[in-house]
Write a structure and sequence with these properties.
The chain has about 500 residues and is α+β, with helices and mostly antiparallel strands. Helices cover about 35% and strands about 20% of the residues. The chain binds flavin-adenine dinucleotide (FAD).
Amino acid sequence: MADVDAARRKLEAALGPEAVLSDPLALRLYARDASMVEGGCALVALPTTTEQVQACVRAAVTHDLPIVPRGSGTGLAGAATPIGDSLVVATARMTGIVEVRPEDRLAWVEPGLPNLDLADHLRPMGWTYAPDPSSQQTSSIGGNVNTNAGGPHCLAYGVTSAHVLALDVVMPDGSLERLGAEGPEAAGYDLRGVVVGSEGTLGIVTRVCVRILPTPPAVRTMLFGFDTVEACAATVSAIIARGVVPAAVEMMDQGIVRAVESFAHAGYPVDAAAVLLVEVDGTDAGVAAQTHEVEAAADANGVSSVRVASDHVERALLWKGRKSAFGAIAQIAPHYHLHDCVVPRTKLVEVMRGVYAIAERHGLIVTNVFHAGDGNLHPLFSFDRSVPGTLERVLRASDEVVRLCVDAGGALSGEHGIGLEKRDFMSLVFSAEDLAAQACLRAAFDPDGRMNPRKVLPDGARCGEFAIAATGSGHAASDAADLPEGSWI
Ligand SMILES: Cc1cc2nc3c(=O)[nH]c(=O)nc-3n(C[C@H](O)[C@H](O)[C@H](O)COP(=O)(O)OP(=O)(O)OC[C@H]3O[C@@H](n4cnc5c(N)ncnc54)[C@H](O)[C@@H]3O)c2cc1C
């Protein structure tokens, strides 16, 4: 039986009263991430050290509270959305850069460090951290690790899992483990790899050893405009077919370009049906050769405008347009919803046509801005939730988009994760046996089902006595009534 008051007293003694929140306003603020799902929690703890995180976990164990780890709350799948009498453990105050060792090509950082702060710290030293989610000003390294975040520059460099060497993790019983190693070959099973992308269901990450890379000596950023979405999408495959893997290939359709342009004034061609933002990097000779191939691919597909950034100021402006896209669409309507399904690159045109048709059928506005190079779609439905019936239409349309992508041979998520929003789609791509195997893996870390219950796996996914939403005293235990409304559950 959960004892919230006793847990609060214990946490206040361990962390100090200012680091434990229990007033209704604070609890409301921590009741959601950047998705549309709103839940609720009993307590919020803001630890600043690994020892304090351990104290949080032990208090939750002693007083029988589920734990929801949280970074900056920018997640788009409801993975950090708490449910029921949870203790939210937010690592956002753990922002230290512990050490940078260029000679070993690594850095140790704390989980609350915003992604961009790491990149900014490394830049004057001539180094970089490659994963660059568009939320990088705010999203934390701990959140990036737990969602296996991607970003525009992950096409050539790989998503977060390729850049994490080791993790310190507070386990669900309060013990501390180091998973992975600074060197390339950690012995035994790759438990570091298991935790990356686990959405806070296996433990709380308190320190991360990331791989750092030298800043490429040369870079070229190009913006191509096209008269049709089809020509734009076809150029993506044409670039790859020419043997070039650019650092980034981002696609934006006209709706997004117009919203971005009136906000960022980046000089995007507002009459184009779609644009491609392409960046190549490497040595001077390599960049010149890649640029030639990219331009040839765009030419072959009837490109209507070409702009090449002449200096770092113009480059930054072009990227500002792309990275502020989600914010810019607030001009269209107050709410947005998206899924980040991945489809084979060769199916981009077909799937995008299908997405537009779905939006039309439901009378909705959809715009597209996405990591085209790896087929990671982000169809954004813009709407006003206060108009009766609109949210329901958005949810039906989103459901159809997910099924369209899966039918095209796609995956449920390229980077945002599964969380609450997509967990009931898991059975579209995994068999009952697959889900049981994943439940067994989760139970090996967290036999009591205390960590971020009801996330990732659908209710009923079962490993022996451990089951998501099992009956009994396990923390997955609950009925559907305690799940937030307005979600897909
Ligand atoms: C405008 C915008 C643009 C975005 N662009 C991208 C993009 O380009 N690429 C991309 O991948 N995502 C993107 N996202 C989604 C989001 O920013 C990422 O999923 C990000 O990695 C979440 O980080 P966070 O710190 O906000 O984590 P949160 O949302 O707080 O948490 C995310 C998950 O990580 C877990 N978690 C957080 N910290 C810890 C910890 N210390 N230990 C254990 N578990 C933890 C939580 O339980 C949850 O499951 C975007 C979001 C927005 C709003």
